[in-house]
């Protein structure tokens, strides 16, 4: 979960999925307009992990362990796509209220997805200085994207 959280915005291009799709960017075409940036963050992270001995700390893992790690990474990073926010929250609420809710097995990945997604959008509840600094960065990205859209 920590690795996925660290990688969830790696190599961010400074624009959102809607812009990528409307501008027909290379990433939107590559990922068929589906969670464009999130799919890029996943692919970039795994390419980095697997391309260098310096970063490849999964070498001694079994294929099953690596497959499970990759499954969790993909799920968590895809959960940060804001277009899925309301449907994912509805699913989490339904599971939390279910009689068979099981945080240790059946619902573990969903809980990790929800935790990372919540952390990703938590800026407004931070103390003022970090909140203001992050808001300034995000607003700068929005303004730059707006400039690109105008061109």
Structure description:
- This protein has helices at about 1-5, 15-20, 25-30, 35-50, 65-80, 85-95, 110-120, 130-150.
- It has about 150 residues and is mainly alpha-helical.
- α4 (about 35-50) packs antiparallel against α5 and α6 packs across α7 (about 110-120).
Q: Work out the radius of gyration.
A: 17 Å
What distance lies between the first and last C-alpha atoms, to the nearest angstrom?
39 Å
Overall shape: globular
**Average of the residue pLDDT scores:** 91
Major sheet details? none
SSE-based structural type: mainly alpha
Low-confidence stretches: none
Instruction: Assess the beta-strand content as a share of residues.
Output: under 5%
Number of helices: 8
Count every beta strand, where a strand is a DSSP E run of 2 or more residues: 0
The topology string of helices and strands comes to: HHHHHHHH
Fraction of residues in H or I helices: 55-70%
